[in-house]
User: Fold this.
Amino acid sequence: MVAVPRIRMEQTMTDLQRILDHLNTSLLLVDRRHVIHYVNAAAETLLGISRNQILGRTLSELIRDASDLAILVDRATEAWKPYARREMNLRSCGTSGDVVVDCTVTPFEDQFENSSVLVEFSDARQHQRISRETALINRAGGSRLMIRQLAHEIKNPLGGLRGAAQLLERQLSDASMREYTSIIISEADRLKALVDSLLGPGHLPKKELINIHEILQHVRQLILVDADGITLDRDYDPSLPALELDRNQIIQAILNIARNAVQAMQGMQPAGKLMIRTRALTAVSIGPRRHRLVASIQFEDNGPGVPEHLQETLFYPFVTGRAEGTGLGLAIAQDLVSRHGGLIEFESRPGRTVFTLLLPFNSNDAADVHKTA
Assistant:
């Protein structure tokens, strides 16, 4: 038998450690007494505790209510076969909240005389997010036919609105007042183009390279009239590249979300605040597709939040929490964004609601998450 040089063995162990530290899966080596003898870098991050503080301690010392995990470890060591548990709530002593993980416990032969197990944690939130986003995408497709029918009803009044604004403009001698009629006319033209695109064959967006901040500034001007007493703040990433977008469609999607936030905060004491934020995100999945680069446009408000009983159906047509609302704004916004390969998602609680638009920079530059993950 050829002896392996010590230096080569040490190098092999170092390389193995580096490989394990690059895994997204959290790994722990645990003995029969629940003492931890090894963790990789992902496990350090998950537990929020450094490796030196983890090694040699028991599961119950590091994880609050570790009873479910301890049962899996005991079963695996006694039966000497793997056990798994999906969507386990895990709260480390080094973190403030629960993490939902999929857990697998596998017997592992080592120097502890067959009494150790390898514990693997993978973040179950990714699977939950993909399922939720896929449902949202399917929901947008189901709403599209209804939206087309409503577009027919919207088209005729737009012509009358534009004509009345033109007549009014001719009667105004004050140039500053004519600016308002010009806005009405330009918005009527934009809405007519939007309705035509909703009714047109194939619903394909007419894309052009656009600076998303230009669109956000335009929408901000439109909602200022409704934002009396509400603070509108901006946190833009100036390095964000231009996106290939249908200008009219994305203006309408963003306008619907921003206007919803402003309307939810009207009359609040203390006054409401809306933050519009842009960022570039890498390696983001939208439904079953992963994109290398995605623009994130967030609308964060301090309003009362989305009622819990509406959150699952919020993007359905005619779902609204306001007596005067139509329940069409978010359904239309989701449909328009989905035509760009994007998605709108949200999180909400009283005092903090965040709507996020995800728009890929190149919708063709995508991969199947299940094949690449």
Notes: The chain is about 45% helix and 25% strand. The domain at 6-123 is CATH 3.30.450.20 (Beta-Lactamase).
